[in-house]
UniProtKB/TrEMBL annotation:
Domain called STAS: residue spans: 23-125
CDD domains: STAS_anti-anti-sigma_factors
Family affiliation: Belongs to the anti-sigma-factor antagonist family.
Pfam families (UniProt xref): STAS (PF01740)
Name the record gives this protein: Anti-sigma factor antagonist
InterPro entries xrefs: Anti-sigma_ant, STAS_dom, STAS_dom_sf
SUPFAM superfamilies given in the database record: SpoIIaa-like
Amino acid sequence: MPEQLTLTVSLRGTREVKGDCQLFRLTGLLDAFSEPTFRKKLGQYVEDGPPHVVLDLAHIDFVDSSGLGALVQLAKKAQSAGGSFQIVTNPRVTQTVKLVRLESFLSLQDSVEVAIKRVSESNQG
């Protein structure tokens, strides 16, 4: 059963653990207002494990530079913990990420299923 996350009024989501992977499904805005809470709460989850993180941003309406910075920090934190970081995206999020050329670093995926498959492939390799 997914755990409900209330990050801010404008950013909500759920967290579900699937094996050695954490799946976060978020909705709303990842902006300067929500970024500090987002970074702090998800950062703690990344530290506590499991090490692999899939962030479903398919229902995010907006990401600004603060949100991008938080995503980069979380990706680095997951990688330094021996895990991986996958982002499921939508056209708005993809456009913002590609604008700053972070699509490879943030490992953008088309669906949760593809992202989870990538995690299991990285565990085998």
